[in-house]
Amino acid sequence: MNKTVSTLAVPGARLHFEVRGQGPLVALVGAPMDADSFAALADLLATDHTVLTTDPRGVGRSPLDDPAQDSTPELRADDLSRLLTHVDAGPATVFGSSGGAVTALAHAQSHPEQLRAVIAHEPPLLDLLEDRDQQHAKTDDLIATYLGGDAIGAWAKFMAQAGIALPEGALEMMFGGERDPRHVADERHWFAHELQGTTRWRPDLDRLRSAPGLVIGIGEESAGQLCDRTSRALGLALGLDPVPFPGDHTGFADDPDRFAPGLRALLTRT
């Protein structure tokens, strides 16, 4: 599998990005997930597509000029636009998951001319919910818990808010003890500079109605979770029926072999 790895200077940051394969362009976008999170899925799609993956600004190998700068959907959408222009492989289908789905929606609003289609998988758009005030308060509280030094407590609150159940002791195994310094830095950036701006972003529904090939994706195993609710709220607001994908919120990474066929079917349809 041919893969090129490079960097692109953008205002305020230097973006790490990877390009695989040949064919119609598809960008796999996360936030805070980095290029490595999409590597297995990218390899599967690169047999018949040009696949772009990247570390979003402030994450992993994409350093910021000012480490205290907040990462907003608008900034990340501008980064994506610059990457698509730089790769210069024609209009793209953008698949974004979680915060990356918010990036993809912001990009669809600002740069629809670059798109063949946009697939927003479980965007955490809390502002679309009827209980938005309570959800925003929960987010603010878990951020304060993390910045106060209690990482495991913050993750426990996050999982509870998200509706994601983990086995007993899983949080301690995942977020306790000695940890990779890069992962800790990425985590802190997300809590301190990205989570609030992403979940409070409110889409321009009129502009999204005219976005090319807009699809809202929901994990088949995400029923009742917070991002299931936000995705369905977006679909209701836009008059779109969400498309099911295998797995839950991280199905693209947990089981890419199951995830890829459904995504490829959408790619070949656009």
Q: Could you explain the architecture of this structure?
A:
The protein has helices at 39-45, 73-87, 99-110, 132-147, 151-162, 170-175, 181-193, 195-199, 205-209, 226-238, 251-254, 256-269; strands spanning 3-10, 13-20, 25-29, 50-54, 92-97, 115-121, 214-219, 243-245. With 270 residues, it is an alpha/beta fold. The chain has two domains: 3-126 and 201-269, Rossmann fold (3-Layer(aba) Sandwich), CATH 3.40.50.1820; 132-193, no CATH class.
Number of helices: 12
Shape: globular
Classify the oligomer: single chain
Strand order of the largest sheet: 1-2-4-3-5-6-7-8
Main beta-sheet strand count, sense and barrel state: 8 strands, mixed
Rounded radius of gyration (Å): 17 Å
CATH fold call of the largest domain:
Rossmann fold
Counting helices, strands and paired strands, the structural category is alpha/beta
- Mean pLDDT equals 96
Ranges where pLDDT stays below 50 over 5 or more residues in a row are: none
**Number of domain modules:** 2
CATH architecture of the largest domain: 3-Layer(aba) Sandwich
Give the beta-strand count.
8
Q: What share of residues is helical?
A: 40-55%
**CATH homologous superfamily designation of the largest domain:** Alpha/Beta hydrolase fold, catalytic domain
Series of H and E elements: EEEHEHEHEHHHHHHEHEHH
